[in-house]
Please model this.
Amino acid sequence: MEKSLHELRERLLRSGVAPRHVRRYVAELDDHLADLRAEGEGAGLSRAEADSAALVRLGGIDELSAAMAERTRFRSWCSKAPWAAFGLAPVIFLSGNYLVACLILWTGWNIFLPGVRSPFIPVSGLAMPYFAVGKTIFFCAPVVIGWGIGFIAARQRLRAFWPLIGLLLVSLVGGMARVHAVPPSHAAAAGHVSMSLALGDFVLGITNGLLHAFVILLFTAVPYLLWQGTRLRWTHQGANSLR
Amino acid sequence: MTPKETNPNFMNGVPELLILRLLQQEEMYGYEIVQAIRSRTEAVVAVGEGVVYPVLHGLERDGALKSRRKPVNGRSRIYYTVTPAGSRRLADLSESWNSLTGAIQKMLRGGHHGKVTS
Model:
């Protein structure tokens, strides 16, 4: 791909245009450029002349970038409403995952442990993988959602502020989430499962809820911040090489 | 790339009108559309050729155009055609444009009557 189209892609992503629109725009421009080059060469121009004539006819980066960026309908939600994309959506998505995990726990309790006062006991047979799915969703969801936030922010070249707020919220909710199993009132009835947010007991001068949140934040924010650092270094090197 | 001068305010709505008119006749891809505009307007309407794509994407999003990928010589080209909603939009735009140009022509023809005094 032409170097100036790479620059255009970066500029569009930084200005908030959704990646799918950027990808299609740049692909069509690349195709158009190839047609213009072929037209120039067909008219007897040298390869270099055809290249530069094609770039002039295609339009300047400022013009091409403004034509797309000024149409707000092509902006991504992460750019239009970062508070919703990084503050609200991950917490709602995490809650959805917790709901699924609780449903697995509750159905497993009723199917495999009827009449038992708590589902949090050692199990065997088919109950083991069944409950393991619920546990995996419960413990991995905050980390996977955190990686998702980092990936989206990286793909869209976003500033770090809102993605970091999102990571912090997901880590706090993930670290403080607690599942409770209330035993059935009589042998024939089913118990019920509920959730709450709690700081938990103190361990090494910090509550275990916050410690868990810190571990989630470490697993999710470190890869994202490393990527941000690498990107800034590349941008800096790219700017220097253009001078 | 060298920036080209354009007048976006004056050109407002014109690219949509020309594109819809061209695509109503036949299916085309971006490069073909630009070359057709260039040749049929005798290069009077000339903007950076790449600027046509956001217009095409906008029209497609509005439902005025539909696109399909077609492999040609090992490349995948996106061809555009007008939808029924696009035909209605073309009729509206043509009507507005005709009344606007009609009014301007009328004013230019009768220009000496509107003498400006200071």
Notes: Strands of chain B lie at 28-29, 65-72, 75-82. The interface with chain A takes residues 1-4, 6, 29-31, 34, 47-51, 53-55, 57-58, 61, 75, 77-78 of chain B (CB under 8 Å). The two ends of chain B are 47 Å apart (CA to CA).
